[in-house]
Amino acid sequence: MTGIYSVRMRAAQGGAHEEGGRHISGGERLVTEEDLDKFAQNLIDRALHHSRGTADFINIRIDHVPLETIHYAAPLSIECKEAESINKAHQMAIQQLIQEGVSETAAKAGVHFIKNDVATRGAIIMDADSGERLDHRGDRGVRVSHMDWDEPFWNQWQMRTKSKDSLKIREAIALATKVTLAGSVAELCWSDDPEYVTGYVGGRKYSRISPLKRVGDPRGGRVFYVRKSTGLEDYIHFLEQTPVIIRGEF
Ligand code: WAQ
Ligand code: MG
Ligand code: MG
Ligand code: MG
Question: What NCBIfam families does this protein map onto (predicted)?
């Protein structure tokens, strides 16, 4: 068997997402056939033990991925910034977005959106100039999928950057790298997990910023910034469907 498998999990409480259940957790890996059972089990454990609550609906989906469809990308380089207050962290995020090519209006609109977002399950797409929302996905948003790190490369990368073995960082850098590869101007994100207050601005770099919210706050989300001329259908198709593996050279 050539190729790998995409294993995806989404979990909710109060029924399935499409039946009005509250989103608890999601995750995915690109793995070889031998590792399928192990990673499917990991994702189930995650759904059952999550800070957002216990899932009563778990969906696991497995798709075969042909090798010739895979794109490869080096991870964005990482930098970390600490702010004295949430307000200052928001200002830092706005400055970083401006550096990546987003207008001040759109940067502020992104912060305002995430600050208040409880409903969106994916990301919204925003015009990097006007700050207008461009997708028509409603609460579903756009969910980036089919990306993961090459396992040996991840282990090396962690040693080189002295990062802790954090699933959150692993997933966020893979996602942010794919979002940049897709032709975005930038990305703004912070978690909806109540205890996780670090977020980032993606673009040419992955700039971690903390704290973007107070501990206990269940709001969070993602904004992808694009130029208005971007062909949204191809852009969204790439984000949702094209397999991307993160690996590079040292
Ligand atoms: N595609 C698009 N949007 C997504 C996806 C996805 N695959 N997964 C989550 N989102 C959206 C969704 O609206 C969530 O509510 C929101 O993002 C936050 O998701 O320390 O953990 O998985 O460097 O809670 C960033 C910092 C952590 C990591 C982000 O986000 C670090 C995080 P979460
Ligand atoms: Mg997540
Ligand atoms: Mg959300
Ligand atoms: Mg979350």
Answer: bioW, PRK01322.1
Q: Based on the domain organization, do 42 and 118 belong to the same domain?
A: no
pLDDT above 60 (res 102): yes
Structure tokens, 212: 């973007």
Per the structure block, which two tokens stand in for 4? 């790998």
Q: Are 114 and 27 in the same domain?
A: no
Q: Is the peptide bond before 211 cis (omega within 30 degrees of 0)?
A: yes
The separation between CA 19 and the C-alpha centre of its own chain, rounded to angstroms, equals 24
Residues with Cβ within 8 Å of residue 41, at least 6 apart in sequence: none
Domain that residue 94 falls in? 71-246
Does ipTM surpass 0.85 in this model? yes
pLDDT digits (tens, 9 = 90+) for 175-218: 999 999 999 999 999 999 999 999 999 999 999 999 999 999 99
What's 33's DSSP letter? Answer: G
Closest to 191 in 3D by CA, of 9, 51, 44: 51
Ligand 1 pocket test, pick from 61, 168, 223 with the greatest ligand atom count within 8 Å of Cβ, gives 168
Residue 197 Cα to ligand 4 middle (Å) = 11
**Is the Cβ atom of 208 under 6 angstroms away from ligand 1?**
yes
